[in-house]
Each structure stands twice: as structure tokens, then as C-alpha cells.
Amino acid sequence: MLRLLLLRHAKAAWPAGVLDVDRPLAPRGQEASVTMGNYIKSEVLAPDLALVSPARRTQETWEIVHPIIGDVPIRNDGRIYEAPVSRLLTVLQEVEAEARTVLMIGHNPGFEDLASLLIGEGDMDGIMRLGRKYPTAGLAVIDFPHERWSEVKRKSGRLERFVTPKSLGAGEDD
After folding, report:
1. If one looks up domain 2-13+21-163 in CATH, what number appears?
2. Whether the model pTM is above 0.85
3. What is the pLDDT of residue 173?
């Protein structure tokens, strides 16, 4: 079995004159990153590999989550930034089979589209909430009955859970 942790970056600020790729986390995003890192640790969801967009807000989300969940190899992948669903799927399918649990930290609309593409069954409440909104710092946990990431295809995943800072009692979702 393979497991994908699909974490949208936490809430970012919009400083004047800053390029989108350079937007930092807002204070609320920093707090949400701690909440999600603590959740991943407490639920024993620590990944074998993290794939992270090079955007500042995703890097800062990782920098907060990483020390909480422990020593996890990271691969910064520029293909995740502003990626359409087809590119995100390719990035995932290229992961080596030894990484049984993979954390991807990236952006919408790509992550919402990827979750929709991959999920064929699972937690119906989570599927309904995902269909309405994939808020910042939202975490989809998707399981696959495969041995290699290259086998992951459309609707082959099972949504194990979808959690957000708000669902964990830590403020509003964006």
C-alpha cells in the first residue's frame, strides 16, 4: 500500500510589490502549519519523502512542519509550482517505490484537481468537503492499493481522511 499526504501550503500574506512565488506565510499560516505538523506527528503519518514546491510559502510551511514530524528527506521540485493536474500526477508517478508514504506540499487549484482525479472512494464526508473547498493547510490522506507510484492512476485512491485547521479546532479555513 502507498499513502499520499497532500498538504496545501498554509495561509500566505500578500505584500505589495512581491512576486507570487515570493509570498511569505501570514502569521495565521504559521500557526496553521504548527497545527498540521502536530497532527501529522500525533497521527503517526510521517512520510518517507517530502516533495515541496519552491515557492516561499510552501518552503515556509515545510520549515515549520519538518522539525515537528522528524527527519524526512525533502525533494524541492519546481514542477509543483503553478502545476496543472497532469504535471502533478507525473511528479507523483516518478517517485521511487521505496518511499511508501509521500508528503506533497503545494498549491491550488492543482492540489484540489489532483485529489479529485485520484480519489475513487473513501471517507464520504471528506470527499464532500473536498468538493466544496480545499482550504490553505488542508491535508488529504489518500491510500492506494499499489506497490509502485507509477501504478497510481485516475480514481485508484481511497480518501482515508481530509483534515483542516478548522476541523481540528484551530481557527478558520481559507
Report:
1. 3.40.50.1240
2. yes
3. 63
